[in-house]
Amino acid sequence: MTALLAGKNGLVFGVANHRSIAWAIAEAAHRHGARVGVSYFGERLERRVVPLAAQIDAPFCIPCDVSDDADLDACFAAAAEAFDGRLDFVVHGVAFAQRDDLLNRFNLTSRAGHALAMDVSAYSLTAMARRAAPLMTEGGALLTLTYYGAEKVIPRYNVMGVAKAALEAGVRYLAADLGPDGVRVNGISAGPIKTLAASGIPGFRKMLGQAGEIAPLRRTVDQAEVADAAVFLLSDMARGITGEVLHVDAGQNIMGAPPLAD
Ligand code: NAD
To answer: Which of 20, 40, 92, 124 to mutate to test the pocket of ligand 1 (most atoms within 8 A of CB)?
Structure first.
């Protein structure tokens, strides 16, 4: 296997447990030769995440609420210290919306719920970029995770779809501003995968079943498939790609109507 990330230093946000897409990316990046620091949300997850971080010899594993500037500062300071001031990539694998805002009709979304979803799920990428760019002294790559609900209406995705649309626009604006410094910014639009965050979406099981029926590959994707694409986008193999959202969804997004019976 060619180690696509040999010698690179990365920071991964969004590991909650072994099912997290961010965990699959952290593991794959480590397998490809990167040193990977891990950040997780809150003490509650410490028991699960610390042993995972140990499996990939993470140089640090620290809590961070991405809606808290002081937490983010501490996290990037830890990365700067562990990596002697040079960071090569950041993976943004975090999102949150209040359950009521997913259960209710979208027109009932509260101001506070909207602001929270936007802050944690969209602005946090910019908050990370502000801190990462100065450490990307030899260029670098930022990668986020998004979903088709940013492009089309997915019932019950609601405010999260609006936040993902902002996130995807953020990818493009960040890519334009950081490109001259050699920093690339991309997203992966993953098909539905059973994770902790996904289980908070009402009717997720149905979404998963439908995706597998609609997708040209007639199946859904798994964390490892997203992680492989992530390694590519973080690596120098993707040095000519920025501002892009790559669908890793077994092709589901190209379909304008469900297939006729096979
Ligand atoms: P997950 O629950 O494992 O990951 C979501 C992460 O967000 C968790 O680690 C959680 O702790 C973190 N988080 C929430 N609020 C936070 C905060 N304030 N500060 C820091 N971290 C916070 O689920 P996942 O499915 O692996 O989600 C990762 C990303 O992939 C999310 O952006 C999600 O929207 C996206 N995504 C998921 C799917 C899917 O079907 N699972 C599909 C497309 C995109």
So the answer is: 20
| Spatial distance between the Cα atoms of 157 and 149, rounded to a whole number of angstroms | 6
Return the amino acid letter for 221.
V
Q: State if residue 197 touches ligand 1 by the CB under 6 angstroms criterion.
A: yes
pLDDT value of residue 262:
66
Give the model confidence (pLDDT) of 15-60 as tens digits: 999 999 999 999 999 999 999 999 999 888 999 999 999 999 999 9
Q: What distance in angstroms lies between residue 63's CA and the mean position of ligand 1's atoms?
A: 15
- Look at the block and give the residue holding tokens 């946000």: 13
- Per-residue pLDDT, 87: 98
CATH class of 9-254: alpha beta
Domain ranges of the chain: 9-254
Q: Whose CA is nearest to atom 15 of ligand 1?
A: 96
Atom of ligand 1 nearest to the CA of 204: 40
- Check if 123 is active-site: no
